[in-house]
Design goal:
With about 350 residues, the chain is α/β, with parallel strands linked by helices. It contains 13 helices and 13 strands.
């Protein structure tokens, strides 16, 4: 039987996490996580990056070069770390996360945030329908089997500004052509999260006391999330809600847009067929449309409830982030934050 991670602190140990390692520090969501962790002033952040990598790392963090073909470099980089955050693209080699989890166990890392940061993979029907991600459960099971660490799956739904301002394969919006494809009637709500909220959510989670500090048991602690999922969202919106926000931000009228409709299930099937035929973009179509099914799978705010209040997360303004998405789409930039809104 695997050794069970301890839920009590050794004498003299801190009840807070200090040393945080992250894979993907300069990635799409990783850079916001790093920014928020540093902003707390409570954590020392270490970025694990491949030997020979040329990515420009944020200031204020430690960089450890690793070689995934040499597990000893992973173990060495992770020694002394309290937590490991794994953020990787969907095309990353599947054994990469496995190697990190094994190395974290050997190094004695107590907490792991596996490569979730998206839809609710605890919803098995949803996860099984999104083929490349159906094996996410294997990683959390591995953490538990090794028995050294605890995992926390960070569920945030789709990244709002990334998805709205990206290609029509995502939320169905083409800003250049002023066209929208509504899935079914466009009224199915889903839970979405902005990049800054992802960063703040992770930072707030890892800034909680490990064990409960109050006697009445009302305050949150990290142990509350041990080997389970943490659910966060900025907004619960349908495509029609998004369109209303777009009209306000762009000061356009519904008559200026061409609106068509497509069955979410048929769109999903077409996307999966494209993927099976070797067109990877089909996975994007399938993944997004599957979350808009009428079964509500994409709305974890309702199906699971949110941990925003436990984490002390702020409210956000929908139109503010719609503006970021529109600018991203029209200007063809990957990071509209530098030229649009500024946040702490």
């Amino acid at each position: 039987m695997a050794q069970q991670p301890s839920t009590t602190l050794p004498s003299g140990s801190s009840n807070r996490l200090k040393n945080i390692a992250i894979v993907g520090a300069t990635g799409t969501s990783g850079k916001f996580i790093v920014q928020s962790l540093l902003a707390t002033g409570k954590h020392k952040v270490t970025a694990l990056t491949r030997e020979g990598g040329t990515a420009q790392m944020p200031s204020g963090i430690t960089v450890q070069k690793v070689n995934y073909s040499d597990p000893s470099t992973l173990v060495s980089a992770l020694r002394g770390q309290d937590a490991l955050i794994i953020t990787m693209g969907v095309r990353a080699p599947p054994d990469q996360q496995t190697k990190l989890i094994h190395a974290a166990a050997e190094a004695g890392v107590q907490w792991i945030l596996p490569n979730e940061f998206g839809y609710d993979s605890a919803n098995e029907a949803l996860a099984d329908d999104i083929l490349p991600n159906a094996n996410k459960k294997a990683y959390t099971e591995l953490v538990e089997k090794l028995g050294v660490s605890k995992w926390v799956g960070f569920v945030c739904g789709f990244w709002y500004e990334f998805s709205l301002g990206g290609s029509p394969d995502r939320f169905g919006f083409d800003f250049q052509k002023k066209e929208v494809v509504l899935f079914d009637e466009g009224t199915q709500p889903i839970s979405v999260t902005t990049f800054p909220m992802v960063g703040k959510g992770v930072a707030s989670l890892l800034s909680l006391p490990i064990s409960r500090e109050d006697s009445n048991g009302e305050s949150a602690c990290l142990e509350d999330f041990g080997n389970r999922f943490c659910y966060v969202a900025s907004f619960v919106v349908s495509q029609k809600d998004m369109l209303d926000s777009v009209l306000r931000v762009t000061k356009t009228d519904i008559k200026d847009w061409t609106i068509t409709k497509e069955s979410s299930k048929e769109r999903y099937e077409k996307g999966m067929a494209r993927l099976r035929g070797g067109d990877y973009a089909g996975m994007v179509v399938g993944m997004y449309s599957r979350n808009f099914f009428p079964d509500g799978s994409g709305n974890h705010s309702v199906t699971k409830g949110l941990d925003n209040e436990k984490l002390g997360l702020p409210k956000e303004d929908l139109d503010e982030f719609t503006e970021v998405a529109v600018k991203q789409a029209l200007d063809g930039v990957s990071d509209a934050y530098h030229s649009s809104v500024q946040r702490g």
